[in-house]
Amino acid sequence: MGEGMREVLWPTRCVVCDLPGTLLCDRCEAMLPRIDPSGACPRCGAPFGVLTCTECDPDPSTDPLPFEAARCYGEYREGIAALMRAYKDEGEQRCAPLVAGLIAEAVPRDWFGWPRVLVYVPATSIAVRRRGFDHMAMVADGLADVLGVPVCCALSRSMATDQRRLSRRQRASNAAGSFLASDDPGTIRSLRGGNVLLVDDVITTGATCVAASAALLEAHVAAVRVVALARVW
């Protein structure tokens, strides 16, 4: 009854077009800027790079990516950007299962059964206090149910600056060394020698995923793959 009254007074609206009914209406979902996996870079998840990727092709001056592969559901623009604003910045926590479902669509079928555990990129403590929740923790729970693997809260994050206003070089510097793997004995056992699927919301330059993957590899995981909702392009 309470839920019904809330819908009468404050009806659920589409986070993209604002029409009442659902959080993401069928029309807006159909128009989300999906990434075609057949043309995407299999290494970093960039929308165009299956043959030659300008984002992650080997460069003698840089270290190779520490994760094996990355997949993203779509490009960070239009409807996907509106969805993430509603979830992260406006506190619409009901978007968590929706985001998890979209990310699940980006996971290749042959990745099912590959990871031992799913690890999410945690928000900073400042962001958690501001929002009142860790947005990727909630998404990870939904994605884990789809994949049939447990969530491992394996990473902690330092007081790094919010990445959204930083340049590529600043992002790399800011993210480097900002993650630590848990020293909990149970977590160590879960990670050691196993494959890890790392989940994040948005990949921009990849600096955050690089730093998080490096921390997991230092904890002696076998390999890391990354999946995210969106790729900035």
Explain how this protein is built.
By secondary structure, this protein is α/β, with parallel strands linked by helices. It has one domain (11-50, 67-231): Rossmann fold. It is built from nine helices and six strands. The strands form two sheets. Strands 1-6-5-2 form a four-stranded parallel β-sheet, with helices on both faces. Strands 3-4 form a two-stranded antiparallel sheet. β5, α9 (207-218) and β6 form a beta-alpha-beta unit. The termini are far apart. The mean pLDDT is 89. It has helices at 2-9, 26-30, 78-89, 95-106, 125-131, 135-147, 168-175, 185-191, 207-218, and strands at residues 69-75, 117-120, 155-157, 179-181, 195-203, 223-231.
Highlighted features:
9 helices; single chain; four-stranded parallel β-sheet; alpha/beta; Rossmann fold; 233 residues
Q: Summarize this, please?
A:
Helix content is 36%, strand content 15%. By secondary structure, it is an alpha/beta fold.
- CATH class reads Alpha Beta
Shape: globular
User: Over the alpha carbons, how many angstroms does the gyration radius reach?
Assistant: 18 Å
Q: Total number of β-strand segments?
A: 6
Average the pLDDT over all residues and give the rounded result: 89
Please tell me the CATH architecture by its name.
Answer: 3-Layer(aba) Sandwich
- Which structural class best describes the helix and strand composition? alpha/beta
Q: So how many helices?
A: 9
Beta-strand proportion:
15-25%
Fraction of residues in helix = 25-40%
Strands across the major sheet, in which order?
1-6-5-2
CATH fold-type name: Rossmann fold
Uncertain segments of ≥5 residues (pLDDT<50)?
A: none
How many separate structural domains? 1
Distance between the termini: 45 Å
Multimeric status of the protein: single chain
